[in-house]
Amino acid sequence: MEKYYSRIEIFVLADDYAGMTKGFLAQHGVSYFIRLYRDQGEKTSILFDTGYDGKAVLHNMKLLGLDINEVDYIVLSHNHYDHANGLLYLLEKRTKKTAIPVIVGKGFFEKTITLKPMVRILNPDWPRNQAESLGAWFIETSEKLEIMPGVSVPGIVKYDERLEFEKEAPEYYIVGENGFKTDFLEHEIALVIESSRGLLVFAGCSHPGIASIVEKVVNLYGRKVYSVIGGMHLINADELRIKRTIQKLRELGVVKVFAGHCTGLKAEKAFLEVYGDDFVRIHTALQISI
Ligand SMILES: [Fe+2]
Ligand SMILES: [Fe+2]
Questions:
Q1: Is residue 104 part of a domain?
Q2: Which ligand is nearest to the Cα of residue 261, counting in written order?
């Protein structure tokens, strides 16, 4: 595999779990700051998701010695508030006044709700034009998009492409002018970084199923996935689904699993049993160096 980056650093700015940290703020959400170093010392920074509370994300960023002005690209995994709402506050606090590319999956701007246990809006609170007025330059894609050499989003995983055991019962809905229809979260995108050890796959909530996402990446890139990092959305999964998911990730050659957010305690225990020291529970302020 071609070596694009001499070092990759990942800082967890938002996760549901605080870990044993001092002064950092946890929240229901995901936000990772990813810094890529090239041999010559140049670096590029990517923000993957923005959590719900941008204020808490920025607070953690400062404690880690990171600067929002350093971010070159933002990738939003999907349109749920716990991943995208923090964007507006972070844009407000950005003093650099150049436009910033914000990569999202096609369908990101649909209005979405859940019905259980009551009607709840799932979208972030900000309207698109407000984010745009603060410099967000949205790029919507359903196909693979290379952001820069060795960094890309693999495109969406269609419902039909998913592994059978990851096809869930309807839980979310898209609200349109003629009523509402099931939202299969087809617009969720992952982020893929090519490291010298293999591909790193960042997943926000893994609504399409983490095994389906990783299988798509392996087929599309023709390379092994070294690590998956993110929320695995197994919090309500039964034991059989958890078992089959871990089996499939093993079969696909995944070496290291960093799981947090919506993975759930049962799945974390199962990952730990199979992966041992190669399983890491994500917490706010966790730093990973690859
Ligand atoms: Fe979600
Ligand atoms: Fe989530």
A1: yes
A2: 2
